Amino acid sequence: MAGIAARTLRIGLIAGDGIGHEVVPAGRAILEAIQTPQLKFTFENLQAGFQTFKETGTALPDATVDALRECDGGIFGAVSSPTVKTAGYSSPIVALRKKLDLYANVRPVKSVDIGGVKGKAGDVDMVIVRENTEDLYVKEERTFDDPVNGKTAEAIKRITYRASSRIGKIALEIALQRQSLRSLTSSEPSIHSSPLLTITHKSNVLSATDGLFRETVRGVYEQHKDKFSSVKVEEQIVDAMVYHLFRQPSHYDVIVAPNLYGDILSDGAAALVGSLGLVPSANVGDNFVIGEPCHGSAPDIEGKGIANPIATARSTGLLLEFLGLKEEAQRVYKAVDANLFDGKVLTPDLGGKAKTTEVIEDILRRL
Predict the structure, then answer these.
(1) What is the pTM of this model?
(2) Is the separation of the CB atoms in 144 and 152 below 8 Å?
(3) Per residue in 265-317, pLDDT tens?
(4) Where are the domains of the chain?
(5) CATH topology of domain 158-273
(6) In angstroms, what CA-CA distances link 98 with 65, 91, 201, 315, 321?
(7) CATH 2.40.128.50 is the classification of domain 1-119+278-367
(8) How many Cβ atoms from other residues are within 10 Å of residue 239's Cβ?
């Protein structure tokens, strides 16, 4: 912490639903473990999710949003979704992204040799940067009776210059930052020799919406070419992208995509490294960040104490990274990777028999 003034950061903790209550404590324990006299954390437990909706009539209470505005960052666990249409309910994490202007969903996907055994996908080290505020997720739909086709449903797909330029810029910044981190850890081999940004779209069909996304991201690169000159930029149509992602995942470094494609690609990419329980994300804006594991509320294992906390641990690392605490983030990543490489304390989704708390304790010991 040399050269950094003493600071206390307030972190909002939203367990949400299901196994969120079992994995969010991992994030808190990690932050407590890395505290120093120069760096302290305080915490505020906040409510959101489907259970909160059933109890209060709202999935995201105003009090939670107001409290987060007074925090420096947050950790979100998981949220359940009703299996049938439920009047008045909408996803709290989607609402949070809009209310706090968390316009980028950043999802690193990295392979680790679990128990010293290389995964079937080989070396994977990519970040998917997903636009977080628009596309089909504006949730503007309507149904009507068409005289020819009968009952018909339509949804608005909205792409704007503002959102596309912001996501393009942060994706390029991440590509540069990843290259900088690789040079700092040059003792550890990297599969990427130089930064690469892959723009994913479907502008061959959706020439207006995806065409605007593609043109805007390319425009950001051209406008700031002096700064991003070391970054190679390529494009991939989304259906071909899915094929190549699974055929040659080691090719990809940073992928930037509109909301829907980014959602699909990041969940699919999780399969390359073995489990959604390993994949973190961060919801990032200019003034706030929320770490969020990519898995759901997992009602099938809720309460059994076997949920994998590693996605939350890595999401906590991302939270630290976007708070400017890069050295502390690297400590967390290394502790998690060491746990996986050792392979002796793993949850059942990774072939082990350990409890959630045992994995957390092992990571804390390595910290």
Answers:
(1) 0.89
(2) yes
(3) 988 888 888 777 888 999 999 999 999 998 889 999 999 999 999 999 999 99
(4) 1-119+278-367, 158-273
(5) Rossmann fold (3.40.50)
(6) 11, 11, 22, 20, 22
(7) no
(8) 12
